[in-house]
Amino acid sequence: MITARAAATFEPVGRSVATARAFVRDTLQGWGCADIVDDAVVLTSELVTNAVVHAGTAADVLCLRNDGGVRISVADRYPEREIPLQNAGQVVVHPDREGGRGLLLCGALATRWGVEYTAAQKHVWFQLDLPERPAGTRSAGPALPVAALPVAETRVRVAVIQIDRGGCISFWNEDAQDLFAYDPEQVIGKPLTDFAAWPHTPGTGTGIVEALQLSRWEGSYGIRGSDGRVVPVYASHLRVRDADGEASTVCLLVRDHERAILQSPQRTPAPDSATQAAQSEGRSSDPFEVFIGSPAPDDLDGLLQRTVERARDMLDGDAAYLLLATDDETELEVRASTGLPSARQRFARVPVEAGSGRYGSARMPAVHEDLTAVPGAVPLLSGTGMRSVVTVPLKVEGRLTGSLGVAAEGAGRYTNEEALRLQFAADRIALAVERARLTELEKLRRGSLSFLVEASDLLAGTLDRDQTLALMAQMTVPTLATWCAVYTVADQTSEPELSYVLHEDEDRIDGLKTLLMKVDPPEPVPTPGARIWTAPSDAAHDAALRTSMRSLGLGNAARPSTGPGATLATASAVGGETVVLPLVARNRVIGMLTLGKPTEEHFRQEILELAEDLSRRAALALDNARLYSERTAISQSLQRSLLPPEPLPDIPGVEVEVIYRAAGEGNEVGGDFYDLFPIRDGAYGFAIGDVCGTGPEAAAVTGLARHALRLLAREGFGGPAVLERLNAAILDEGSRSRFLTLLYGELWPQEDGSALLKVVCAGHPLPLRLRQDGSVEPAAEPQPLLGVMDDLELYEQNVTLDPGDVLLCVTDGVTERREGTRMLGDDGLTDVLTTCTGLTAGAVAARVLRAVERFAAEPASDDMAILAMRVPEAPAS
Question: Where do the segments described as Disordered lie (predicted)?
């Protein structure tokens, strides 16, 4: 149930983010939700930033207070903007992208969150539940000089009013009587709403009745005194229950200008005596706050950026940078900079230990008066124009956690004194930076686990090769990389083939694919891990250079088919770091997963590790899809060889239609079968049978029966002899033999327009004959089935089909069609056939099939064959 509401709209300008943070902080503190204010402000800041900065639209912020907590929604006016899915929760976007970080924070901090779309807006919402906290939680404020203390009356009066569950006053103390001039008898038993002057703030729907139902509430309103004037008060409400479980609300009220008596203080740690003394003198005692400023940024990137900016200002430098150590402390990774091309250097890595081309000043403070005299001493500053630099380590409990540097364009700007000042600041912030880094890393790891679980589910859900390739690319872009290309290797002697390309900007896909087709594919090396591949960026830079020279008239080559804008855009999109991860399955390289960044960007090590985990899962899924495709192709080829060749022979003067359905996914042939073939001039053989069971085992007996029938019939054997020899062949199969019901017949078209049939029905459902008058009757008698007894005595029966007659032959998949305890049966089939008078053979077969399909909602579980033969009527003269 919604108990409070507040809404505001912020224009698409940078200052709106700070205004939105203040709006949410003030709203939640006014609702008494101080426990979740910090998390709410962090999430709102990220989501509003995405809206007003990245999406470039106004942001609508809606705060809703409910029984369990607070739900905040941020809507922008750009509904087409791509949002990664996480569901239930979620493709995870790493926190170092300019967009999408708010979603990662939502997944880490919020109780619940989601994304909703309308025709004009995209809403990102999150829910923060209020923690269960016992009454009696205390906080303390610092000692203050007397002049700084809040002003109150000589005699402080705190009105205590108790409201029962019906909203009526049940207790009224003496201070309440003095403040509002009502005796207890005048107010007890009356609703509080009779005396309260509740403000109606635009955008806030909480009334006094709703406020009295909240567990805690603080705020201002008025109480009408006995003289009719409204006394402004500041109130603190607490919802309680007595020993009998009866709920009531205790209200403490003071005059509004004395609100400091009741107002909850901000949550800050209790200061020690030194802090109190420092604050009494009007100065800050926390070196971290002195350096960073207050309030400190909530997120790691904000903290690092604030650090480099303050370090640059403190030493009056032209640039500053901060590097964080990797987990093994062997490399440093650029995480923040100012005055340098940060986008170009972000996440670039340099080794820690001293040596040629290495970052030798990481573990100790160092001052370089002139970098031109020691080229390569600080690789990060190469080509930036910086000449003097001071660097200091960030250490926590003796471990190297990072490095902070300040640089200037002039030589000799820094001495050991500046190094000591910078080291002092670094020591103050090292612990805070390490805590923020570990928090970010934990969130990233949790997000990585969710990402891998979702990726595994998606990859396991398909055995289609093309779909697997598409999933691989779509899971990496834009979550792990800006663009992705998948190469496949058919066998050890084949060259890698470019199979799929994806870029986060769809307009760049064609140009990227064209560029990669011109570049030799990466070598399929089985060594695990990501390796750098420079060929795409080199080719992109060369293409961009040639295009620029042509546009200036400096080149003699022909102009490219695409414009210079497209070429330069492709170069920019591919010009960053590119890595290749092998796709290894069953000890064989089956492909490569290539990930790329735009111009001069680098991959984080955590992202590369996640990509490596994904590549292992993707490789197995891709190989499974390949094996499944190969086996399916083999199975379908073998199954098709068991079916009669198409088309079926044309029989003069007889219409023939066959419908065949094999049960089981991927099966083209099952235990039911049919055949129609010429025996000799003017004579045709037909058969329809059912092998016990379904699937490949039954299909094997199907093939034996069909080929044996053709061979024996063409050798001149009659119907009984054909089936007796087939029975012997089935029994010779031993344990692989199956029972077989079979209807076999021979057909001779006659000159008078009729057709003569000789049929043998060995355990099979009897064929039905439909006459022109609509009557239906069996056209044969039942005889023993095949594959059971050695000695069979079978006989054939003659049937004459007159013009207009139909002979319908089916397998038991038709007659035994079930829904619950109901079965179509022979009678049901007869009823369907009686409605087919005058229809062609094709129409008869189609009507029987529709009747079978409509008889039950569930798909058929048995093979099904329908053979309809009709002698057409003679045309009227």
Answer: 262-286
Q: Which residue has the tokens 């250490």?
A: 395
Going by C-alpha positions, the residue among 573, 617, 618 that lies closest to residue 596 is 573
Please state the separation of Cα 392 from the chain's center in Å. Answer: 42
| Residues 320 and 428 occupy one common structural domain | yes
User: From residue 190, how far is each of 1, 197, 217 by CA, in Å?
Assistant: 26, 15, 21
Question: How far, in Å, CA of 643 to CA of 656, rounded?
Answer: 17
Structure tokens at 343: 């986008």
Structure tokens that stand for 6 in this block: 């507040």
Looking at the structure, tell me whether residues 702 and 764 fall in a common domain. yes
Helix axes 695-714, 605-642, angle to 10 degrees: 30
- 135's tokens: 């009454």
Q: Is the dihedral of CA 715, 719, 721, 726 positive or negative?
A: positive
Look up the pTM and report it: 0.44
Are residues 852 and 829 part of one domain?
Answer: yes
Regarding whether 594 and 513 lie in a shared domain, the answer is yes
Structure tokens at 868: 């309809």
Query: Is 292 within a domain?
Result: no
Cα 409 to the chain's mean position, in Å? Answer: 47
Res. 558: pLDDT tops 50:
no
Sheet with 672-680: list strands edge to edge: 672-680, 683-691, 740-749, 755-762, 797-801
**CATH label of the domain that carries residue 104:** 3.30.565.10
- Beta-sheet strand order (sheet of 196-197): 169-172, 159-164, 247-255, 230-241, 216-224, 196-197
Quick one: tokens of 479? 């979550």
Whether 487 and 425 share a structural domain: no
Radius of gyration of the chain (CA): 42
Burial class (CB in 10 A: 0-12, 13-18, 19+), 375: exposed
User: For residues 275 and 439, which has the higher predicted lDDT (pLDDT)?
Assistant: 439
Which phi and psi angles does 563 have, rounded to 5°? -70, 165
Q: pLDDT digits over 59-107, tens only? A: 899 999 888 889 999 988 776 554 444 444 444 444 444 445 567 777 7
Q: If we measure between CA atoms, which residue out of 775, 786, 780, 799 comes closest to residue 739? A: 786
Structural domain of residue 623, as residue ranges? 462-551+566-630
Q: Are residues 437 and 469 part of one domain?
A: no
Q: How far is CA 344 from the centre of its chain?
A: 30
Domain end position, chosen among 581, 597, 630: 630
User: Which residues are bridge partners to 4 per DSSP?
Assistant: 65
